[in-house]
Design brief:
The complex is a heteropentamer, with two copies of chain A (221 residues), one copy of chain B (248 residues) and two copies of chain C (231 residues). Chain A is mainly α and 221 residues long. Helix content of chain A is 86%, strand content 0%. Chain B has one domain. The chains are: A mainly alpha (221), B mainly alpha (248), C alpha/beta (231). Chains in contact: A-B, A-C, A-D, B-C, B-D, B-E, C-E, D-E. Bound molecules: protoporphyrin IX containing FE (HEM), adenosine-5'-triphosphate (2 copies) and magnesium ion (2 copies).
Chain lengths: 221, 248, 231, 221, 231
C-alpha cells in the first residue's frame, strides 16, 4: 500500500510539475471546441445540436493523446526495469500508473467539460449527464489505454499503433457516452447507457491491469 | 538614452520623481474625461447614451495596441543591445497591456450587443484583437516558462517581435475588409472626422490612460528591481558553497 | 520449452548455468556459467559489443536467455540493477528521487529507510544537490544519484553496468567503498567494466571466452530462435 | 545546397522509417472525422453542413500535434548543437526541417483530404478548393509552427505553450481556409481568401526561418 | 555589455580570456584563461560538477560566458563538439549517420568526404556495424560512432567531453591514435577527462583553480546576472 501510494504520488507530482500532459489534454479539449465555434462562425443552433458528440469525441481524442506517454518515459529512461525488479506486484504498478494518468488527464477534462457545455448551450440535465458519463467513461478509457500503451512499448510506430489497438475498444464507450447525454437532453431515460458505462468500467478495472502487466513483462527490452 | 538609464539606481531615482506626476495626470485626465464624457458631451443621434461606452472602449483599444508596440520595441532594443532593461520593461508592461485588451474586448462586446444586436462576430477587427489578447498571454506564459530567467526573457522578446505583424492588421483591418466595425475616425489620414464635443473627452481619457499606464509601469519595474536585489542578497547571504537552489 | 526466467534457488548463491544469448539474430555467447557466493564480486569484461550488458539483463530477469537458466540465491531480497543509463526523472529533485526509490525498493520500515537514504547521500556527497532537479546535474552527479539509489535499496544482489562512468576520483573511491561495504555485509555484485584491475579480490569473467564462434541463427529444426538443449 | 538536400533527405527518410508522425497525423485526421460521423449516427445533412469546418479544424489540430517534435529530438540528443556549430546558415536548417515536416505530415494530410470530402458529401468545386486551400494553408501552419517549436525548446510546459503561441497565428489561416471552401461550395468567388492564404504563405516563408533561427540560437542549452 | 560569443581572432590559436561561468545562479569559475596553439591538446580536469562541460559549451559558442571572451583561431573550419551524449538517431544506420554528418560538416568534395568516412569507419572498427540502426548498438559501439563522426568532419578544433566513456581497450587506443593523427596534422583539441594521465604531451587545465571562492549572484547594482566587467 505504501508502495502504491508512493508510485501514485510520485507520478502525480511530477506530472503536475511538468504540467504538460494535463494542460495539453485540457487545452486540446477547449481548443477544439473553440475552433469549431470559430469555424462555424457562431452558428449556435448548429453547435447546440452537435454538442454532445463534439464534447465526447474531443474528450476521447484528448484522452488518447497522452496515452503513449503512460509507460514510455519509464521505459526509455530505465525506470521500468527498476519497477519490474521491485517486489511490488506489476498489476499494482499498472493500477497506480492508470490512477495517476486519470487524475492528471481525465479529471481535469471533466472539470473543464461544464464550461464547454454552457458555451455550447447545453441544458441542465444534459450537463449533469455529461459529467456523469465522463466520470464513468474516462477511467475506462484510461484503463483500456494502459493495455495499448503496454503492448506497443518499443514498437516502431508506437503512437499510431496504440490508437489502432484501443480505438475498437473505445467505440462502445463513445456510443454509450453520447447516448447518455442525448437521452438526457431529449428528456428520455438514460439508465441503460449509464449502466452499460458502469459495467464497462468494472470490467476494465478487473481485466486491464492483468493484461497490461503481462504486456509490460514482455516489453522489458 | 539606454546607457543613461543603464544604472538601476538612476532608473529608480528618475522613476520615483516621475511617479507623482503620472498619478496626478492620470487622475486629472480620467476625472475630467469622465466629466465631459458622461455630462457635457451629447448622446449620439443614432446610438443614444450607449455611445458613451466609446470613451472607455477607444482609449483602451489604443492602449492595447500601443503597449504591445512598446513591448515589441523594447524587446528589439534589448535583443540588439543585449541590455536587460528592455526585457524588464516588456515583462512589466505585458499584464497592463493584457488588461487594456480585456477592457477593449469587454466594452466592445457590450457596445456590440446594444448597437449590432450581438456580442460577437468573427470579423477581421474583432478577431485580430482576440489574437492580440492571445499573443499577450503567450508572451507572459513563455517568459515565465524557463528556469533560466534570461532565456525566458529572450524567447518572449522574440515572440513579441513576431507578433507585431498583428498590429498593422488590427489597425487597418477595417479598411482592408468591409466589416461591421467602425472605420478609423480619429487617428486617420486627412484629419479627424469626429465632433469636438466627443473628441475632447476622448483625448482627455486617452491622456489619463497613458499616465495611468506609465505610473503602473514604473511601479512594476521598481518592484522587480527591488525584488532582484532582495533575492540576490538573500542568496549571497544564505549560501555557503553549493547551497540551495532557487527556481526563478 | 521451460521457463528461462531466473528462479529462486535453494542454495545461497547466484548460479548461472550454460547461458546463451542471441541478439538481433546473432549468437553473442553460449555455454556461459558461473557461481557467485555471498560476499563475492564478479567482474564481466570483454570488448565492446560482446554482450556484457545483455548478460546483466539476463541475470536480472529482464530478458530471457536463449538457453540455460539463472538461479537466484534464496532470500535475495530484491535485485538492484544499474544500466548504462541513469534512469533519473529530469523534474524530480535528487532527494525526491532517492526517497521514491527507497519507498519502492528499500527497507519497509520508514526509520530504516530514512537512514538508508541518508547514508547513500553521504556516501556519494549528494547533500548539497538534494534540492536540485536531476536535469541540472552534471554527468558525474547524475551517476552518483543513480549509485545512491542502488545503495539505498535493500538489495543483496547488485547488477551494475560500468558503474564508475563519469565519476571523478572521489566518486570512484566512494563507489569502491560502497561496494566493499556491501560485500562485507554478505552482499553480492556482478559488475560489467572495462577497468577490471580496479577491484582486487574480485573474480573476472572474460565473456569473450564463451563468444559464439560462428553466427548461429534460429535452428530450423525447432520453433524458436533457441540454442543448445531444448525440450 | 548539398547540405540542404542532405538535411531534408535525412529527416524525411528517418521520419518515414519511424512512420509515427505521418501516421499519427493522418490517423488522427481520419479518425476524428470517422468518430464524428459515428457520433452523429450518419446524419448526412448535418455532416455535409459542417464538413468544411470539420476538415479544416481537424487538419489544423493534426498539424499542431506533431509540432513539438520538430526540434525536440534534435535538442535532446544533441544533434541541434551539432547543427548550430556547422557552417550551414541556421535559416536554411530551419527551412529544411520545415520542408521535411510538411512533406511527412502536411502532404499526407492533403492526400487524405479528398477521401474525407467524399465521405462528407462535398461537391466537386468544394473538394477542389479544399485541396487548394490545404495546399496553400498547411505550409504556412508548419512555418508558423517552427517558430513556436523553436521558442519553446527547453521550456517547462513545451507542448501546451506551443499551442498557445501558434494558435493566434493559426486563426487567420483557419478562417480564410474555411472561407475558401464554403465560398466554393456556395458557388461564390473564392479568390479573395485564396489570395489571403497565398499572402500568408509568402509572409511566413520570409519571416518564419529568421525568427526560428534566432530562437534556436537562444535555445542552445 | 559586449557580445560574448566566440569571435574569430587574428592569431592562429584558440584564446580564452578571463572567462566566468554562472549556472543556476551559482558562479562555477571565473578568471579562467588559456591559449592553445596548433598541434596542442588541452585537458580539462576537475571534480564532478566543477564546470568542465559548461566550459566546453562556452568554447563552442553554444552558451555565452558570464564574462570574458573566446577567440577562435583563424581558418578553424568548423568546430567539432562531442558532448556526454552521443547524439545518434536510433533509426539511422551507422553508415547513414556518418554520411549525413559528413555532408553537413565534412569536406565539400564528395570524393574526399567518402574517404574521410571510410577512414573513420576503419579507425573505430565500425565496418561490421555499418548497416545496423544505432538503437541496436552497445554503449561502446555508440561512442565509437560518435567519435567517428568527429573524425570524419573537417574540423580543426575538437571539443570533447570524456570521449573514452564506455570504450574498451581497443577503442581507447583507437581514440588516442585518432587524436594523435589530428594533432600531427596541426589540429587542436580540448578534452574534458577524469583520466588525465592517459595522454602525454598534453597541457592540463585544472578548473578547480578558478573555482568561484564564494558564490556570487546577480550583482544588485547592475541589471543582469553578470559577473565582471559591465558597461
Ligand atoms: C469586441 C468587440 C470590439 C473590439 C475588439 C473592438 C476593437 C477596437 C479597436 C482595436 C479600436 C482601435 C482602432 C484604431 O485605433 O484604429 C477600436 C476603435 C473603435 N471602435 Fe471598436 N471594437 C469592438 C466593438 C465595437 C463596437 C460594437 C463599436 C460601435 C458600434 C465600436 C466602435 C469603435 C469606434 C467608434 C472606434 C474608434 C475608431 C476611430 O476613431 O479610430 N467598436 N475598436
Ligand atoms: N541547466 C543548468 N542549470 C543550473 N545548473 C546547472 C545546469 N547545468 C549544470 N548545472 C550545474 O553546473 C555545474 C557544472 O556542470 P558541468 O556539467 O559543467 O560539470 P562537469 O565539470 O562537466 O561535471 P562532470 O565531471 O560530472 O561531467 C554542476 O554543479 C551542475 O549542477
Ligand atoms: N535490441 C537489439 N537488437 C539487436 N542487436 C542488439 C540489440 N541490443 C544490442 N544488440 C547487439 O548485441 C551486442 C551486445 O550488446 P551489449 O550491449 O550487451 O554489449 P556490451 O558488451 O555491453 O558492450 P559495451 O561494452 O559497448 O557496453 C552488440 O553487438 C549489439 O549490437
Ligand atoms: Mg554495455
Ligand atoms: Mg561534464
Amino acid at each position: 500500500m505504501t508502495a502504491f501510494c508512493a508510485l501514485l504520488a510520485f507520478d502525480v507530482r511530477l506530472s503536475f510539475r511538468r504540467g504538460a500532459d494535463t494542460m495539453v489534454v485540457v487545452g486540446f479539449f477547449l481548443l477544439t471546441v473553440f475552433l469549431f465555434s470559430l469555424a462555424f462562425r457562431g452558428d449556435t443552433a448548429l453547435l447546440a445540436r452537435i454538442a454532445p458528440g463534439l464534447v465526447w469525441v474531443t474528450a476521447l481524442l484528448a484522452a488518447m493523446l497522452a496515452l503513449d506517454r503512460l509507460f514510455l518515459a519509464d521505459f526509455e529512461d530505465g525506470s521500468l526495469d527498476q519497477l519490474l525488479l521491485s517486489e511490488i506486484p506489476l498489476e499494482l504498478v499498472v493500477l497506480a500508473k492508470a490512477a495517476a494518468h486519470w487524475i492528471t488527464t481525465g479529471l481535469p477534462l471533466i472539470a473543464a467539460a461544464p464550461a464547454l457545455a454552457l458555451v455550447l448551450n447545453m441544458n441542465g440535465a444534459g450537463l449533469a449527464h455529461l459529467v456523469l458519463s465522463l466520470l464513468l467513461g474516462t477511467p475506462t478509457l484510461t484503463l483500456i489505454g494502459t493495455i495499448g500503451a503496454a503492448l506497443t512499448l518499443g514498437a516502431r510506430r508506437g503512437g499510431v499503433l496504440i490508437s489502432l489497438l484501443v480505438l475498437p475498444l473505445y467505440i462502445p464507450v463513445l456510443i454509450f457516452g453520447v447516448g447518455v447525454v442525448t437521452a438526457a437532453i431529449d428528456g428520455m431515460d438514460a439508465s441503460v447507457p449509464i449502466m452499460a458505462l458502469g459495467g464497462f468500467l468494472l470490467g476494465a478495472l478487473a481485466l486491464a491491469p492483468l493484461a497490461s502487466a503481462a504486456a509490460l513483462r514482455q516489453a522489458a527490452r | 538614452m539606454i546607457h543613461f538609464l543603464a544604472n538601476p539606481a538612476r532608473f529608480m531615482r528618475i522613476g520615483a520623481r516621475l511617479l507623482p506626476w503620472c498619478w496626478a495626470l492620470a487622475a486629472l485626465g480620467m476625472g475630467a474625461g469622465l466629466w465631459f464624457a458622461l455630462v457635457v458631451s451629447p448622446a449620439d443621434y443614432q446610438q443614444g447614451d450607449s455611445v458613451r461606452i466609446m470613451y472607455i472602449h477607444v482609449p483602451s483599444a489604443w492602449m492595447a495596441l500601443a503597449v504591445y508596440s512598446l513591448i515589441a520595441l523594447v524587446s528589439a532594443m534589448a535583443l540588439v543591445w543585449k541590455h536587460p532593461l528592455g526585457f524588464l520593461i516588456g515583462r512589466a508592461a505585458a499584464p497592463l497591456g493584457t488588461g487594456f485588451t480585456v477592457i477593449c474586448l469587454v466594452t466592445g462586446a457590450l457596445w456590440g450587443q446594444t448597437s449590432w444586436g450581438t456580442w460577437w462576430v468573427w470579423d477581421a477587427r474583432l478577431t485580430s484583437v482576440l489574437i492580440l489578447f492571445f499573443l499577450y498571454l503567450g508572451y507572459m506564459a513563455l517568459g515565465s516558462a524557463f528556469d533560466d530567467a534570461d532565456r525566458g526573457n529572450r524567447a518572449a522578446a522574440l515572440l513579441a517581435m513576431v507578433g507585431f505583424v498583428n498590429i498593422p492588421i488590427i489597425k487597418f483591418s477595417v479598411d482592408w475588409w468591409s466589416t461591421l466595425h467602425q472605420p478609423a475616425s480619429v487617428l486617420r489620414m486627412g484629419g479627424s472626422a469626429i465632433h469636438p464635443s466627443m473628441l475632447t473627452p476622448l483625448v482627455l481619457m486617452a491622456l489619463g490612460f497613458v499616465a495611468y499606464f506609465l505610473a503602473l509601469l514604473v511601479l512594476r519595474v521598481r518592484a522587480e528591481i527591488a525584488g532582484r536585489k532582495v533575492a540576490a542578497l538573500m542568496m549571497a547571504g544564505a549560501m555557503g558553497g553549493a547551497g540551495e537552489f532557487h527556481d526563478n | 520449452m521451460t521457463d528461462h526466467r531466473p528462479s529462486v534457488g535453494r542454495a545461497d548463491r547466484l548460479i548461472a548455468r550454460d547461458i546463451a544469448c542471441i541478439r538481433g539474430g546473432r549468437l553473442l555467447f553460449a555455454g556461459l556459467g558461473f557461481t557467485l557466493a555471498p560476499g563475492g564480486v564478479m567482474l564481466l569484461t570483454g570488448p565492446n559489443g560482446i554482450g556484457k550488458s545483455s548478460l546483466l539483463g539476463i541475470l536480472a530477469g529482464l530478458a530471457p536467455p536463449a538457453a540455460g537458466s539463472v538461479e537466484l540465491p534464496t532470500d535475495t531480497g530484491r535485485i538492484a540493477y544499474l544500466g548504462h543509463g541513469d534512469g533519473l526523472k529530469p523534474l524530480a529533485t535528487v532527494a525526491e528521487t532517492l526517497a521514491f526509490w527507497a519507498a519502492v525498493n528499500g527497507p519497509g520500515d520508514p526509520q530504516a529507510r530514512r537512514q538508508a537514504i541518508e547514508e547513500a547521500m553521504e556516501a556519494f556527497a549528494l547533500g548539497p544537490l538534494a534540492a536540485l532537479p536531476c536535469r541540472y546535474l552534471s554527468a558525474g552527479q547524475r551517476r552518483r544519484v543513480a549509485l545512491g539509489r542502488v545503495m539505498a535499496g535493500a538489495a543483496r544482489l547488485w547488477l551494475m553496468d560500468e558503474p564508475a562512468t563519469a565519476l571523478d576520483g572521489a566518486g570512484a573511491r566512494a563507489f569502491d567503498q560502497a561496494l566493499a561495504g556491501h560485500i562485507a555485509a554478505g552482499g553480492m555484485a556482478v559488475v560489467a567494466t572495462h577497468a577490471p584491475n580496479a577491484l582486487d579480490g574480485a573474480e573476472i569473467l572474460e565473456i569473450a571466452r564463451f563468444a559464439g564462434t560462428a553466427p548461429r541463427f534460429a535452428d530450423p529444426d525447432t520453433w524458436g530462435p533457441s540454442v543448445g538443449q531444448d525440450p
